[in-house]
Amino acid sequence: MPGASIASDSRFIVLEIDLAGEPTTVGVVADEVHEIAEFDTTTLQKAPPISMRRRPELIAGIAKWKDEFIVLPDMAKILKTEGI
């Protein structure tokens, strides 16, 4: 992958995800981070199969946060998927 441009608002996010049955630590660069929030995975809604700009199989779920809906990516699936 090409290197990401790092700006003053960029943040590194460190994740531990399951890749090939092994817990794997990976780092990703976010353009900006506005706030850190926790979501109860039992309250996530499934991504609708249509009307989304993103591939629904790569979405872990949709959460309600404050007055907004937040699309939560499934990072393990994204990192396992070729051609993204």
Q: Would you give an account of this structure?
A:
It is a single chain. The model has no long low-confidence stretch (mean pLDDT 82). Strand 1 (11-19) and strand 2 form a beta hairpin. The longest helix is centred in the C-terminal third of the chain and has 6 residues, at 75-80. With 84 residues, the protein is mainly beta. The radius of gyration is 14 Å and the shape is globular. The strands form two sheets. The chain has a two-stranded antiparallel ribbon. A two-stranded antiparallel sheet has the order 3-4. The chain has one helix at residues 75-80; strands spanning 11-19, 22-30, 59-65, 68-73. 7% of the residues lie in helices and 37% in strands. The protein contains one helix and four strands; from the N terminus they run E-E-E-E-H. It has one domain (11-80): SH3 type barrels.
Summed up:
This protein is mostly beta strands.
Key traits:
84 residues; globular; 4 strands; SH3 type barrels; two-stranded antiparallel ribbon; mainly beta; 1 helix; two-stranded antiparallel sheet
Distance between the termini: 10 Å
**In the residues, how many domains can be counted?**
1
Task: Tell me the Rg in angstroms.
Answer: 14 Å
Secondary structure: helix percent = under 10%
How would the blueprint of this fold be written?
Blueprint: E1 11-19, E2 22-30, E3 59-65, E4 68-73, H1 75-80
Antiparallel strand pairs: 1-2, 3-4
